[in-house]
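Changelog note: in this version the structure field was regenerated for every chain. One regenerated record is shown below for reference.
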Amino acid sequence: MLLEYFIFGVISFLMTGAQCKEAEVFAEAGSQAVLPCKGNPSSRAVPLIVWSKDKKGTIWRKEKTGLRYWGSSWSSKGTQRIQCPHFQFERGDFSLQINNVGKEDGGVYFCRVEQGGHVTQNVVTLRIIAVSVSSSGPVWGNNVLISCNVTPKPQGASVEWMLNNSPFVPQAGIISERADALSVVSEKATVRLTGKWTCIVGYKGDEGRASAALTVKGIINPSKDSAKVYAAVGSTVTLPCVFSPGLSPSNPVWEKLKPSYLFKPSPDRLPASFSPTLPNSQDPLDKSASLKEVGFEDEGKYRCSGTIEGQRLSRTMQLVVAKIESSIPSKKTDSMTLTCQLTDSSEVTDYEWVHMVYDLNGTQSVGSTQKGKTLSISQDSEENQGEWTCVFYGKGGILGNVTHHIHLMSGLSGQKSSGGSHNTAAIVGLSFLLLVLLLILAQMYKNYQRRRRAFQYPALETIVHTISNEREERERSRVKK
């Protein structure tokens, strides 16, 4: 068949001055490929169009009478995968569309157009690009291969790998060419490999690309080591440790790492408020821990680990603790300085102070805001009472916040200065009344004790009473005489 087309093409070229054009077309597996074929747009004659493939014969044909023929092997479930849109014929465009292309569709195609005694021969090489992954969900630490396959394979083509739309540079792995693949990336599975892999192939001035997604299974939250978790002193914080769906982690362990070590990190004592599990957690993949009341000394690195398929997976994170330090105001000034302190401020790009005030009904509202790590306010001003919150920001937005409560005496200071003498007099008066009351109680107690001692000798009391009565009787008698 090829020999026939070749002989026919040579004869047509010699007799009618036929033209021959070549083109390269790249298409991603599963997509639609468009094979170009240009005729004579100025001719008004009805064309004869024949599309064929190397070693496959005719795949699509249109006679001058309008009859069309399809190759029997180009239909899928009763639907033709190829078509040549007729509305483009007036422009001399006889391109062929192939839907849902696969590896077997790669190869050399021929388009022959006879129109008004003029013959045009188009030769198109269709190359199918596919990116495959040895395991679509490899476990962290296992070997993984990402391959770029092109059918038919071009000789001398350039290959560039992109990961999440950025050029990929191997760190520990390699990029090589194999007999069954144009390019292969070999790496250890880490979260760094997660995302969209794109292979870009350049050949003879044309370019094609294909993509595939890769998800590494392991600890997905935090997604990388040394991730920072921010918390305020006295607050409750969650240290995340969540495994990928489909895994069954066993023997989960939490450790706090000592701040300094030479070769291998050694565990330190966990905080007293540390809880290795979250309350009411029913998710077997969630091995997160919590600190019920964070202290400034609880900062540092923590590590969670679990066993997956006989392999120990771990993730480290850093707890950054924030607090507000207030300066002791001097006697010469009524200003107070608040400073936002973090155990690690390397990722902080900005600080903002937000004043929260409350009305008599307890409704909260936002007052003034100020920028900067430190804040100077007047301690005697009623406008400054309430809560001051330090919000710290990073490149991606808010990292965290910490709040300081100011219980100012400014509301009472005016009353104290205007009614100081009145308060002093009231205190002196109350002290005097208390002293008088104590004296009365003492006298009553003395009289009680005197009567008690007298009642202890009833006979003596009778004698004294008798003598007293006789003395009174004698005095009466003397007065009568």
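Spot check on this record: The radius of gyration is 48 Å. The first strand starts at residue 19 and ends at 28.
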